[in-house]
From TrEMBL, chain A:
SUPFAM superfamilies: ABC transporter involved in vitamin B12 uptake, BtuC. Belongs to the ABC-3 integral membrane protein family. InterPro entries: ABC_BtuC-like, ABC_TroCD. The lineage of its organism: Bacteria, Bacillati, Bacillota, Bacilli, Lactobacillales. The chain crosses the membrane at residues 12-30, 50-73, 85-104, 116-145, 157-181, 187-208, 215-234, 240-258. It holds the Pfam family ABC-3. It is a multi-pass membrane protein. This is Metal ABC transporter permease. It is found in: Cell membrane; Membrane. Keywords: Membrane, Transmembrane, Transmembrane helix, Transport. It comes from Lactiplantibacillus dongliensis.
From TrEMBL, chain B:
Gene3D superfamilies: P-loop containing nucleotide triphosphate hydrolases. This is Metal ABC transporter ATP-binding protein. Pfam families: ABC_tran. Belongs to the ABC transporter superfamily.
Length: 265, 230
């Protein structure tokens, strides 16, 4: 399997993606942003279509769209109560734009599905490098912001009264999420991205109870899902995204079962 | 003990359609234990926000000694909606309030967290997920997080409102202990007059358009009721 260049590339890129999604996911879950990541993946699709229309790479289009829209969402919905509605509005607009650009750029619908569902075969060595660089940037920023981000995500009220610049943290974090979404879309596709960004972290919080351990376990769940998914996809010639989704769901439901046995609720 | 920590001078705060304070003056001495009493909507939270610098006074001023930067404030907020599935251990929750850039805690920082856990009496249960802790344990964990940075001023915002009687006194005993041994100045906002009477040295009674600051000693709960008109 590893004698094939595209499989090597897929495994390399997949590992980077699993690491940043596992890390960011812990904060996504803590901040109740699962819905936003779902929306961002739709916006990523629109961005990819825009990138193709402009004759750029899909990744650049996705980056532009997801980063801009997450900053808009961050500005519009600092108040939690307004968040859901403003996210819906933004996502409706961007999905429409995605369809528009796709039809304008005269690409066939098979291209659209490869954006939506990812394509392992499409990952070239240059893509791996781009994914690696973006992952590096995301991880470095996270590391630099680790303590304030942790405080704001796990105790927003405490962080605000202690004088942390919570709005700035919020916007920076959304940009990081946007970048991770764009990166991860390469492999699992924009529709299934939110699986890697939410399920490993959501499962991890039932087994361990410190932020660092949650990040570690969440990365492990994500990596196992991606590696096993790629392998099963290779062996069976069925879509990788399906396997990754199924494996992560197994982790999540196991975690819920564990919690029920353990705590009885 | 007689040097002021904060001096509020002729403070006025007004929102459109609502003058909350007009001419409010009082000093909080170092090591004092001041209780703020008054009905809902009389401006208790507004006053705290002004003291924390989150709200600009319309007139008058708030002076900090030696200066605002030098005064660290620990704040135990009234509401925190942490549900049963809140995942962090009490220890991890308390260390959220450690500043700095390092992703992990240094040895000295570990000791600081440890001290806060010890003096608030949650050290034994520090590995318990906070979501699984009882109401009293949660409040003690919040208190631990507020004092982990060794603040000069500790503000408790209705922190006892959701506790039963025994737990209230347990929590306030801890606070009093901090006030006496570590000389942390305490500002305690409450509805609970008997509790205020037992622990506070001074009171600030807020009423619409009128405020009274005085010593707690010698006042009975009935007299307090009169001044605060609760």
């Amino acid at each position: 399997m590893f004698s094939l260049a595209f499989m090597r590339n897929a495994y390399l890129a997949g590992t980077f993606i699993a690491v940043i999604c596992g890390t960011i996911g812990v904060f996504v879950i803590a901040r109740n942003l699962s819905f936003l990541t779902h929306t961002l993946s739709e916006i990523g699709f629109a961005g990819a279509a825009f990138g193709i229309f402009m004759g750029w790479t899909a990744l650049s289009g996705m980056l532009i769209f997801t980063v801009i829209s997450s900053v808009i969402v961050g500005q519009m919905s600092v108040k939690q109560s307004r968040r859901e509605a403003s996210i819906s509005a933004i996502s409706a607009l961007f999905i429409g734009l995605g369809i528009l650009f796709l039809s304008l750029s005269n690409q066939t619908s098979s291209y659209a599905t490869s954006i939506l569902f990812g394509s392992v075969i499409g990952i070239a060595a240059g893509d791996v490098l781009r994914v690696a660089i973006l992952s590096g940037i995301v991880l470095l920023v996270m590391l630099g912001l680790y303590r304030p981000l942790k405080f704001d995500s796990f105790d927003a009220i405490g962080a605000r009264v202690s004088g942390l610049w919570t709005t700035a943290i919020s916007v920076v974090f959304l940009v990081l999420v946007a970048m991770s979404v764009s990166v991860a879309a390469q492999i699992v596709g924009s529709l299934l991205i939110f699986i890697l960004l939410t399920l490993p972290a959501a499962a991890a919080r039932y087994f361990v109870h410190t932020v660092s351990k949650m990040i570690g376990l969440s990365i492990l769940f994500a990596i196992v899902g991606v590696w096993l998914g790629l392998y099963l996809g290779y062996v069976t010639n069925l879509p990788v995204s399906f396997f990754i989704a199924a494996i992560e769901c197994v982790f999540y439901f196991t975690a819920l079962g564990y919690q029920r046995l353990h705590v009885g609720s | 003990m007689t040097a002021p920590l904060i001096a509020v001078q002729h403070l006025g705060i007004a929102f459109p359609n609502n003058q909350v304070f007009k001419d409010l003056s009082f000093d909080i001495q170092r090591g004092d234990f001041v209780t703020v009493i008054g009905e809902n909507g009389v401006g208790k939270t507004t006053l705290i926000r002004a003291l924390l610098g989150m709200l600009k006074p319309t007139s008058g001023q708030i002076k900090y000694f030696p200066n605002k930067k030098a005064i660290k404030v620990g704040y135990v907020p009234q509401f925190r909606n942490l549900d049963q599935e809140y995942p962090l251990t009490i220890e991890d929750f308390v260390s959220l309030n450690m500043r700095g850039w390092r992703p992990w805690l240094s040895k000295a920082e570990h000791r600081q967290v440890d001290t806060a856990l010890r003096v608030t009496n949650v050290k034994k249960i520090k590995q318990r997920p906070l979501g699984m802790a009882s109401g009293g344990e949660k409040q003690r964990a919040y208190l631990a997080q507020a004092i982990v940075q060794a603040p000069q001023l500790l503000i408790l915002d209705e922190s006892t409102a959701s506790l039963d009687n025994e737990m209230k006194y347990e929590l306030l005993d801890l606070v009093q202990n901090l006030n006496q041994t570590s000389h942390i100045t305490v500002l305690f906002i409450t509805h609970d007059l008997p509790l205020a009477k037992q622990y506070a040295k001074h009171y600030l009674a807020l009423r619409p358009g009128q405020q009274e600051f005085g010593a707690m000693a010698g006042m009975s709960v009935e007299q307090l009721k009169e001044v605060s008109d609760v």
